[in-house]
Amino acid sequence: VKAQWKNRERRLIFDETLDFYARNGYSIDGRNDALYLAARAGGERGIGTEFGAHRVYGIPHLILMQLSRVNLFHLVSDADMKHLKTTVGIRDAESPHGEFVFRQWEKKPGGTLSEPFTGRATYPQSYLDQLSAT
Fold first, then answer.
1. Are 59 and 45 in contact (CB under 8 A)?
2. 3-state secondary structure of 119
3. Contact in structure between 114 and 108 (CB atoms under 8 Å)
């Protein structure tokens, strides 16, 4: 995050975001929370971030509050929806149902969220054959 290249945008993708945090939401490396720094200061430095996780609860509030777009597939625990309501402002009571069905919200200027868009992701069978059952 500290390095800056003039006129060059970068994109960081973090899959399994919760692997970087303890159960209490604190970084596993207390002196260097790169994910938080990327979310908080990345936009100022031309860095876009994407976070993926099976659960929302446990991702630090400060990262969730920085989100500009949320793509949400089905969550096993609807308690995570309550967490999204208090941190991000998503008012839906349940996560989307159905295979590969998702909802997407965008943060508008001023901080309010758009109405959700509902879609269905399509993947080639060659990709689906590689996925585990979970």
1. no
2. strand
3. yes
Q: In what order do the strands lie in the sheet with 117-120?
A: 69-72, 101-106, 117-120
Name the range with the highest mean pLDDT among 18-22, 51-55, 97-101.
97-101
Tokens of 30: 């207390």
**In whole angstroms, what is the distance from residue 62 CA to residue 17 CA?**
14
Return the closest-CA partner of residue 56 out of 74, 40, 35: 74
Q: Rounded CA gap, 45 and 6, in Å?
A: 9
Residues whose CB falls within 8 Å of the CB of residue 113, separated by 6 or more in sequence, listed in order = 88, 89, 90, 105, 106, 107
What is the C-alpha R_g of the chain?
16
Locus of tokens 């689906």: 128
Q: Which residues partner with 14 through β-bridges?
A: 51
From first CA to last CA, the distance across the chain in angstroms is: 33
Determine the pLDDT at residue 87: 87
Specify the pTM: 0.76
Contact 30, 3 (CB under 8 A): no
